[in-house]
Amino acid sequence: MGRTLVRLINDTPALDLHGGLEGPDHPDMGTDLGTLAGLPALGLALGGDALELIAGADAVIDFSTPAATLEMASLCAQARIVHVIGTTGFSDEDNASLAAAARHATLVKSGNMSLGVNLMAALVRQAAQALGDDWDIEILDMHHRHKVDAPSGTALLLGEAAADGRDINLAEKRDSGRDGVTGARAAGAIGFAVLRGGSVIGHHDVIFAGDDEQIILGHRAESRDIFARGALKAARWAHGRGPGLFSMQDVLGIS
What we know:
Elements lengths: L1 H9 L9 E2 L11 H4 L9 E2 L2 H5 L4 E4 L3 H14 L2 E4 L6 H10 L4 E4 L5 H16 L5 E8 L9 H14 L3 H4 E2 L14 E7 L5 E9 L2 E9 L3 H14 L5 E3 L1 H5 L3
Parallel strand pairs: 1-2, 3-4, 4-5, 5-11, 6-8, 7-8
Antiparallel strand pairs: 6-9, 9-10
Helix pairs in contact: 1-9, 4-5, 6-7
């Protein structure tokens, strides 16, 4: 994602790349960001000093780990700059910490930065609201073999949209552990099927299964560019706004 962001920022006249950040032991530390992205040298080296990176920047775009994102959120809050968060795998406690940081900074956080996925989430919410509880909801979530969290942030985003449409709590209705003799499907459950393999970037279906018919809403990610483009759109949208915790639904105007 870092390489993709460098390339797309370089291609966008309205944006200026200020720097890139990685952990101190990263093997590419000190390498020119342009070189890493397959571009001519940009005169900006991959660094490890977050304070130096933030100084003079208008926004941070963050696809990292929960621990690194929480640290960055605190720094962005102190600097009063935009923090776009594409990191996934947060705990409830982590989310509470991000909400606290959003009292002082402008945060845009999403389990998926793709414009298409976020539009799909709005459609899922609308369908869940319109269809009765006798329609079962199942979410298929497939990613590459290196994906570390399951269900993915995208799948949970879609599950939350379905739960919002039904005005229920996803944590109370989520079913992602079927194995063996499980008995009949629980009424009102939102099921998750997780697949991992190959180099799949992202493949998601939300299935509304009724008696004698199904409605399937799907999204296929064919390039990581879609996540970077969404993050850059979010950064430009958030620039100049006051503190708050926003989502890509807000960026698209469909919240």
